[in-house]
Amino acid sequence: MPFHVKKLLICAGAVLVLSTSAAQAQARSKSRASAAPTAAAKSDRTDSLALRKIFDEALLRGESYDNLRYLTGTIGARLSGSPQAQMAVEWGKATMEKAGFDRVYLQEVMVPHWVRGSKERGEIIGNKDKGIRVPVCALGGSVSTGGKLKAGVVEVRSFDELKALPDAAVKGKFVFYNRPFDDALIEPGQAYGRAGDQRRSGAIEAARRGAVGALVRSLTSARDDNPHTGTMAYDAAVPKVPGAALSTNAADQLSQLLKANADLQFELEMECITLPEEKSYNVVGEIKGSKFPLEIITVGGHLDSWDLGQGAHDDGTGCVQSMEALRLLRAAGFRPERTVRAVLFMNEENGTRGGNEYARLAAQNKEIHLAAIESDGGGFTPRGFNVEADPATISKMARWAPLLKPYHAADITVGHGGTDIEPLQAAVHPKALIGYDCDSQRYFDIHHTAADTFDKVNRRELELGGASMAALIYLLSKYGL
Length: 481
What we know:
The protein is α/β, with parallel strands linked by helices. It has two domains: 44-113 and 275-479, 3-Layer(aba) Sandwich (Aminopeptidase); 117-271, Glucose Oxidase, domain 1 (3-Layer(bba) Sandwich), CATH 3.50.30. 42% of the residues lie in helices and 23% in strands. The strands form two sheets. Strands 1-10-12-11-13-16-14-15 form an eight-stranded mixed beta sheet, with helices on both faces. Strands 3-2-9-5-6-7-8-4 form an eight-stranded mixed beta sheet. A hairpin with a 5-residue loop joins strand 2 (121-125) and strand 3. Helix 2 (39-61) runs antiparallel to helix 16 and helix 10 (312-331) crosses helix 16. The longest helix is centred in the N-terminal third of the chain and has 33 residues, at 3-35. It is elongated.
């Protein structure tokens, strides 16, 4: 055999031996790796089991639904300053004390006290004074009509349209704002935001032009006879005129009749009144952190509600889920490493006094807030969380998505945290403001209406939401941001 061939064979054998040895070494390495998981894999498995315990507790022994039943059925609507709002404060405190939190206390806050009065009456009056009664309700904070207020109507869809009208077309009339939801938007919350200025500022802009009142199309895409209330504003430099919401069916009917008869009139009667401010409270329950007790994670919803329904989805669900999130951690056997607070905020609907006071006290006490979570989008099926934070923080939270995915709560996206936790940003600069995100397609069908009642809440969806919030708190408390 020629030398060069023999040399090639020897070299080839050496390569084969080396390759075999390398393969065997690699196999042994893989075997060791499978026998001894990495620290990260161990941690993931530990966290996965922990979250499963939280969800098991929620689905098998959850208390959110029964708590909501009592809040909505026994106490009912809880407008700031009302006796029912005070009953809700007492109930919230007692419920958290019963749950065994380390500390439960109240934060005093002065709140507005607006009373709707007798049921409102609205009527479209056409030829020969023939009237058609339509569903209507006062907007929150409106002045009364001082008896029956009867006037012509001018329809607009924006403030720009109103501005373009001559004074004679507006003076002495009702301005009828008839801008509908933009149903092309996938997220109904975006449509609500785009339509909301006509409710908030409609009476101001109408009065600025000499109108006697504002009629506003309800902020919903639903076509029904439920008028939607909600807060409105006044300007001290402009006369106060009454503001009322028409149901979507009533708005469509009024618009059609105006096309046939531009001279028709509308008669409105409302007896609402604003009384002196009342003393009320935020309700706070706390579990002290085992390793970093000075770092705080807040989770909350707003205890007050509008007065037409029972305040079930808005925001009874957020309140019971926030309390439940802490209870679930305890029941599953976890002591959070950072201090966790459940806060039932007072007066989100018509003043945000509770959220502002919570932030003021946090700054005054020089508290360190890691994150704050708010549930105020209804108690529907979980989707994930909207986060206000820097990109690095959001990226870190997004790494937890695989742990949350089995529970359909893995969408970690940029978005609004919440109205009540928003003041914390300027006061104590938490690393993240987080909004619990659920499937809100049905939310604005009942939002701020008489239809916001306990029977509209699904038990499993509600309990899954509280567990999703507890799961995120577990991860935030363990790993920080």
